[in-house]
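TICKET: design request
STATUS: open
ATTACHED STRUCTURE:
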């Protein structure tokens, strides 16, 4: 059943929240930034992390809602459920496919012990790379859904919302990095997304499989970014007393 943005659905609420976030961010970015918010209008590093986490949580929740919509709407449900059945029949194929997300080339920590070996600055740069790597896929996702026959308005609107949120999250992380390391130059390479041809394929199954994989990988990464940001905020506020057992995929 198609979720209507005119009704009080989670998708609609998340999109309204994202717009509220963007309006708030215009005010935040116009204020002076200092390590401690001692004067009215100043933004502390903790405040910047709080805002980035609010963005990451909204992005993650919207991505989850979009996946549910793909599995329930007649536009895509049949194909998405077929892929799950195919995976259940062939576990090796499932493992190979779902371990091929383009961001998996990044060397990311899986436990707190590994995370503690990474400097605050390098951890932020890693998160920046992870978020930046989704700029291109999300741009093409919106373009393809816009031209795709039968694509529901709610799915297209949700994709646009995620694209905007990802861009804003990237900007907030860059702002945090500039505060931690003023004058840091961006000279990094980012993971290359190679599924555009599949997303544009005339073959229906290839086309929908590209959508399925994109949203699977996006779900993993939005969750991961949220966990990483919460860990860094914990380190910032509580020092080394952050005891989460491990970073797990959803």
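STATUS: resolved
RESOLUTION: sequence designed for all positions
ATTACHED SEQUENCE:
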């Amino acid at each position: 059943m198609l979720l209507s943005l005119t009704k009080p659905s989670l998708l609609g609420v998340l999109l309204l929240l994202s717009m509220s976030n963007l309006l708030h961010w215009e005010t935040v970015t116009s204020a002076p930034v200092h390590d401690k918010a001692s004067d009215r209008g100043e933004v502390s590093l903790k405040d910047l992390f709080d805002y980035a986490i609010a963005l990451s949580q909204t992005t993650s929740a919207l991505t989850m809602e979009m996946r549910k919509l793909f599995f329930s709407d007649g536009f895509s449900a049949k194909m998405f459920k077929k892929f799950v059945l195919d995976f259940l029949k062939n576990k090796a194929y499932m493992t190979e496919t779902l371990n091929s997300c383009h961001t998996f080339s990044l060397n990311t920590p899986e436990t707190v012990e590994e995370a503690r070996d990474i400097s605050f600055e390098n951890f932020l740069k890693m998160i920046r790379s992870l978020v930046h790597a989704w700029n291109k896929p999300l741009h093409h996702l919106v373009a393809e859904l816009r031209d795709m026959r039968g694509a529901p308005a709610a799915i297209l609107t949700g994709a646009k919302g995620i694209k905007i949120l990802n861009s804003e999250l990237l900007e907030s992380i860059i702002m945090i990095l500039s505060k931690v390391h003023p004058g840091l130059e961006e000279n990094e390479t980012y993971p290359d997304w190679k599924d555009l041809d599949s997303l544009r394929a005339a073959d229906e199954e290839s086309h929908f499989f590209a959508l399925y994989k994109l949203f699977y990988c996006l779900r993993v990464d939005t969750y991961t970014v949220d966990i990483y940001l919460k860990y860094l905020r914990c380190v910032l506020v509580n020092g080394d007393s952050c005891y989460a057992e491990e970073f797990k995929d959803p």
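CLOSING REMARK: Residues 10-238 form a domain with the Growth Hormone; Chain: A; fold (CATH 1.20.1250.10). The chain has a mean pLDDT of 82.
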